[in-house]
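Exam revision sheet. Question 4 asks you to relate a sequence to its structure. Input first:
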Amino acid sequence: MRFDAAKGDRVSETSDAMQEAVEVINAGAKASVVLVCEHASRDIPAQFEGLGLAAAARESHVAWDPGALSVARKMSDELDAVLVAGRVSRLVYDCNRPPEALGAMPAQSEIFAIPGNAALDDAARADRVKRYYEPFRATLAATITRVASPVIVTVHSFTPIYHGEPRSVEIGILHDSDTRLADAMLATAADHTKLKVERNEPYGPQDGVTHTLKEHGLVHGHPHVMLEIRNDLITTEAEQQQMGAMISDWLRVALARPEMKDARP
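Answer key, structure tokens:
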């Protein structure tokens, strides 16, 4: 894959699979932070015929993470950080799930049945893995290798009401067995926001949401964290920009803490 290093734009010689599956933004960035937005898009390629879903479902939070990409883009600008973003709906393939996970191509997502995923055979599943997951995984891995002392930060949003139950948490700081960056962010949260911040909420490792962290951070010893932002807080461009700027400042402070300096190679 070839990029314009000055603009961070994909310019040519990108395979069709890469173009369809993943986008790299600000590829020439100088920061050690690598931003990831697996659920950036609600796009369902035409061959899947909308997965049999009504428009409301295709546009809802089950298809993507509303507002997350705009927040991540703002963070990319603020931090001068590269951003790797998925280009298809997580209902086609959830790039934060390994191929063997049922949730990688879910037949049910919250209250929505996904007809186009209900009867996938092994060949159809393998085709989606090859077309969407493998290019995303390879692109992210290659991006990380080009960054000195990488710190991986994944950016997500979540619905304020899930299965009819309201959620009080407003920002979740998620981690798996490596708690370093999560601990640093939680220790400094009150200095940056009055929002309700919680550890491993509204999801945690037990929900299978830390795949990217484990695959690209944990096994290589890179500090990492997953951010979950309640999507009713980032519905407008102004809110997205404000949230991205605030989290960028928060992340800078967390990464400057002595324990984080000691933890990085």
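Marking note for examiners. Residues 1-14 have pLDDT under 50 and may be disordered.
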